[in-house]
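Format notes (please read before filing issues)

Several people have asked whether sequences and structure tokens are stored in separate files. They are not. Every record keeps both together, in the order shown below: the sequence lines, then the token lines. Line labels are part of the format and must not be stripped during preprocessing.
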Amino acid sequence: MSEKEEQDQPMNDGHPKPAMREALVAAAFELFLERGFEQTTIDDIVSLAGVGRRSFFRYFPAKEDVVFPDHERGLADMTEFLESGTGEEDPVRHAGDAARLVLRMYAEQPSFSVQRYRLTRKVPGLRAYELSVVWRYEHTLAHYLRGRFAGRPDGPLRADVVAAAVVAAHNHALRTWLRSGGESDWVAEVDRAMRFVTDTWSERPGGAGAGAGSEGAGAGEEDDDVVVLVASRRAPLWRMVQGIESALGEPRQIRRD
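Then the structure lines:
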């Protein structure tokens, strides 16, 4: 048996050696950065990694998959976390906490994550692949939320919209962190993003604002006046807003965190 064939052998439990997988990823990125993604072949990668060609396909179905080697784990962690809920927690916040796991996964390897971000910006095919990965996260969140919103007339719609909002907020926080070269405070970025989603969509009193460092609804404030607006169902939204402002006596600005 040749040395390369010995390296291709799985461990006793039937699973390939983790070090081999890491070697393939390291070799691939070294070549991608040196030659470019399009110019690098799978044969180039396995040659630099010092393993056989079949070792590559044991881990990665295609060259694109080696750019995103951690997403299967991220998806599994998210799914496990969502299923660990008791059913009593705020579903919107629980979905947001699940998304945090994905950003934490990126933050575990800041240099690699930043390199991947810069690479995907240059290769249209990788951007398209990345969108398919993001869709899987969104689909997983929507599936969980559909179960939690079951029985509501707007349940399926609400689940899909909230899932999309969680993913969009997560991606905003992630891109902000990546554009900083991995130097900014990713925890603060994702906290801010998920607080926005929870404050917008949660129906629980206080929403994400009930946490430490946030302003709870009505905490330490006088009770607000109640304004009742009567308007035609066909009235445009701007006219309703105008009516509310008139009743309050002055225009109000929308608060932005």
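For reference, the curators noted about this record: The CA atoms of residues 111 and 168 lie 23 Å apart. The chain has eleven helices and no strands.
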